[in-house]
């Protein structure tokens, strides 16, 4: 999965565009991410009610979405492809939300035959009226969503499936957890969600605050990575995956589409080298689809890109 450019069938964008602005913007003009309602956990011993078992769980993802991309990478790194199944939605999201369609890299729903991801939410909670997001971790046995809370999903994939996964790699080792948790909080607030806070800000002041904070953290991490292979020395962790999914989209989408344009990622010597180094790892490179990424962002946010034209660039040497 690689190259950037896409043409897709036009769909109705108006409802989704209105939804993003009206439902997610505070009176100050600041973007507020919706609450993720389903937060059950998988445990190795089943004490949570959801026992780690091969073939029981399915991930609904979008290759365009950075939050879902984390789960795809962890599943691949831990070699869980034959344990937790996966399918992708269409990168074009219209007023009805994420949809299952046949296409390049996305398919009809192979588990339940749903046409829309919203049907999985309504099957779990009849009359569901909240935000419909990816990733979704689905339980075949109970016929319901276990979680749509992306931070928990990757932790559970790493820690609870050790009977079937590659245990030589631990992305959340106990001795490093306090430092990983601190880093994850910073990365989420200022970078992962920071680009959205800039892109969907409804006032100049909210936009400037988000962009200033975003680049202050990038500057800090540039210094941190100047003499370190990963964020925590020579150990690849959850924090690297959480940071990387935003960095890999930065120059391609966020710099232009979300107006995070104080600098390009390629202007940062250490961060750019770090991003390219991780891209060389198959679990990162082979799960990155720039066509899905560009199609989704440039064609499903009409309030940001009314023409829905997908740019040809930038040309980046990965």
From TrEMBL:
A Pfam family: GST_C_2
InterPro entries found in the cross-reference section: Glutathione-S-Trfase_C-like, Glutathione-S-Trfase_C_sf, Glutathione_S-Trfase, GST_Omega-like_C, GST_Omega/GSH, Thioredoxin-like_sf
GO MF term set: oxidoreductase activity
Enzyme class at the top of the EC tree: oxidoreductase
EC numbers on record: 1.8.5.-
Positions of the GST C-terminal domain: 173-297
Residue intervals passing through the bilayer: none
Gene3D superfamilies referenced in this protein's UniProt entry, alphabetically: 1.20.1050.10, Glutaredoxin (3.40.30.10)
Keywords associated with the record: Oxidoreductase
PANTHER family: GLUTATHIONE S-TRANSFERASE OMEGA-LIKE 1-RELATED (PTHR32419:SF6), GLUTATHIONYL-HYDROQUINONE REDUCTASE (PTHR32419)
Protein name (database record): Glutathione S-transferase family protein
Native source species: Sphaerisporangium aureirubrum
Organism placement in taxonomy: Bacteria, Bacillati, Actinomycetota, Actinomycetes, Streptosporangiales
């Amino acid at each position: 999965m690689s190259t950037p450019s896409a043409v897709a069938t036009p769909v109705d964008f108006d409802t989704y565009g209105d939804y993003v602005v009206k439902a997610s913007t505070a009176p100050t003009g600041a973007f507020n991410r919706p609450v993720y309602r389903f937060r059950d956990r998988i445990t190795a011993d089943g004490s949570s009610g959801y026992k780690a078992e091969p073939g029981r769980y399915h991930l609904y993802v979008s290759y365009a979405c950075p939050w879902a991309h984390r789960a795809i990478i962890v599943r691949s790194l831990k070699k869980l492809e034959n344990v937790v199944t996966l399918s992708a939605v269409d990168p074009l999201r219209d007023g009805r939300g994420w949809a299952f369609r046949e296409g390049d890299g996305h398919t009809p729903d192979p588990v339940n035959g749903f046409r829309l991801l919203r049907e999985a939410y309504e099957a779990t909670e009849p009359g569901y009226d909240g935000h419909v997001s990816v990733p979704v971790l689905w339980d075949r046995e109970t016929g319901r969503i276990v979680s749509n809370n992306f931070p928990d999903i990757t932790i559970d994939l790493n820690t609870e499936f050790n009977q079937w996964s590659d245990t030589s790699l631990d992305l959340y080792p106990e001795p490093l957890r306090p430092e990983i948790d601190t880093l994850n909080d910073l990365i989420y607030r200022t970078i992962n969600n920071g680009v959205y806070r800039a892109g969907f800000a409804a006032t100049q002041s909210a936009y400037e605050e988000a962009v200033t904070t975003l680049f202050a953290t990038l500057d800090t991490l540039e210094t941190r990575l100047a003499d370190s292979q990963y964020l925590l020395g020579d150990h690849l962790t959850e924090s690297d995956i959480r940071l990387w999914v935003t960095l890999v989209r930065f120059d391609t989408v966020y710099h232009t589409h979300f107006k995070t344009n104080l600098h390009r990622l390629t202007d940062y010597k250490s961060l750019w080298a770090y991003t390219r180094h991780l891209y060389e790892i198959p679990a990162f490179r082979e799960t990155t689809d720039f066509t899905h990424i560009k199609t989704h962002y440039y064609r499903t946010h009409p309030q940001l890109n009314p023409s829905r034209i997908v740019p040809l660039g930038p040309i980046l040497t990965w």
